[in-house]
Amino acid sequence: MASAVTPHAIADQIQPRTIVSGWIPYYSVKTVMPFIQKITPSATPAPNSPTTCEDNEYSPTDLAALNSSYLFTNKDLMKEVMPFWYTLKSPTVIRDDYSTGNPSWPIADTICLMRKSGLKLIPTITDGTEKLVLSGYLAKPETRITIVKSIVDLVNKYSFDGIDLDFEGFAFVDGNTTWTKTAPNWVLFVKELSNALHAQQKLLSITAPYSFDPTEKAKGYYVYSWAEIATSIDRLRIMTYDYSVAKPGPIGPIAWTEKTLKYAISVMPASKVFIGLPGYGRDWITSVTGTCPVSAPPGLKAGAKAATFRMNYAATKAAIDNATPVFDEKTSEATYSYSQNFNGLTAKGAATSCTASRTVWYQNDRSYLERMNLVAKYRLGGAALWTLGMEDPTATLAMR
């Protein structure tokens, strides 16, 4: 790592400590919490009886594993988590990705164990429809009503504390020429869903990519209409990451991050706004010289899709790459470059070699500290980690 652990973020007099939230994907629940098996009950539970997870239902060893897991040892930092488990397929179908991905571990048992942490559970629903399908649904009052009912039914089925919508298709699939038509229907839908959830004391969270002041030339993803939905939502989790995807560069430079935060708090209470923190880095190929042997990895060319890695692997990766990361002050991120040499034979058996030059960017403990200081500076609702448990332990410490 380029930097040692630095002083903690501005303290609790300004902002409560429980300011961390984050996503728990269905495919990595065990990153934050173990799956533990109940001791065989002495009697078969009655049909339709509520799921329980009392301490005496588990072995001391399993209970200790649960209590020493990421979710339970860091719960003092957190107010809520977002199980990233659901996909909207149609107005009446919200696919349960958790149960498909974890067939041996019933969803009700996992939810019960998560609740033992005392945290709010606000699961995320993503858009699993094809291009322009969801925007078409939202254009019709009757299908909006149906989607609202499907979401509220899901929330009530498991007594969730609310719902988080991560409908990225508008931004990244439909195309920006559709946004002026989609935006007013989106606003109507959010208001209708908000009314239905709030009537049952449930929360509505929206996850969205960045936006800027619409009077400026660079507007960002204005389709999500932050100003118009501000009074309807309880949380806005901004994806202040993925600034650089196709080309090498920072994951979420701090000036860019602060700019979108400042716009958000100009149209809604700062307490509703959450900064996104990436728990991953990217590794891009910038050039390849020579002729690569057939034994070299496939797709070895400049411009290829970047490899991703967890932040908690960054120090190990830098050592393997024989590189020394530096902290880029301007972007508040760590970066380094390195090269890989490949020697071997061509398809015709001739000796050959090539060199791939690569560039890495990621956020480290100092990056997290400086972004948590933005939380304090603007008195934001908190931070949202994609995803919980991928950050380095020093970064977790920096959030305290």
Give the termini separation: 19 Å
The percentage helix is 25-40%
CATH superfamily of the largest domain: Glycosidases
CATH topology of the largest domain: TIM Barrel
Biggest pleated sheet: 8 strands, parallel, barrel
Low-confidence stretches: 1-16
Q: What structural class do the secondary elements suggest? A: alpha/beta
- How many helices? 13
CATH-defined architecture of the largest domain? Alpha-Beta Barrel
SSE topology string? EHHEEHHEEHHEHHEHEHEEEHEEEHEH
In what range is the share of β-strand residues?
15-25%
Q: Calculate Rg over CA atoms.
A: 23 Å
In total, how many domains does the architecture comprise? 2
Outline the structure in words.
- The protein has 400 residues and is α/β, with parallel strands linked by helices.
- The protein folds into two domains: 20-37 and 53-279 and 363-398, Alpha-Beta Barrel (TIM Barrel), CATH 3.20.20.80; 280-362, Chitinase A, domain 3 (Roll).
- 30% of the residues lie in helices and 24% in strands.
- The protein contains 13 helices and 15 strands.
- The protein has helices at residues 60-67, 70-73, 97-101, 107-115, 133-138, 141-157, 169-172, 179-198, 226-229, 254-267, 314-320, 365-378, 393-398; strands spanning 20-25, 80-90, 93-96, 120-121, 124-127, 162-166, 203-208, 235-238, 273-278, 280-290, 307-310, 326-328, 333-345, 351-362, 382-386.
- The strands form two sheets. An eight-stranded parallel β-barrel has the order 1-2-5-6-7-8-9-15, surrounded by four helices. It has a five-stranded antiparallel beta sheet with strand order 11-10-14-13-12, with no helix packed on it.
- Strand 8, helix 10 and strand 9 (273-278) form a beta-alpha-beta unit.
- Residues 1-16 have low confidence and may be disordered.
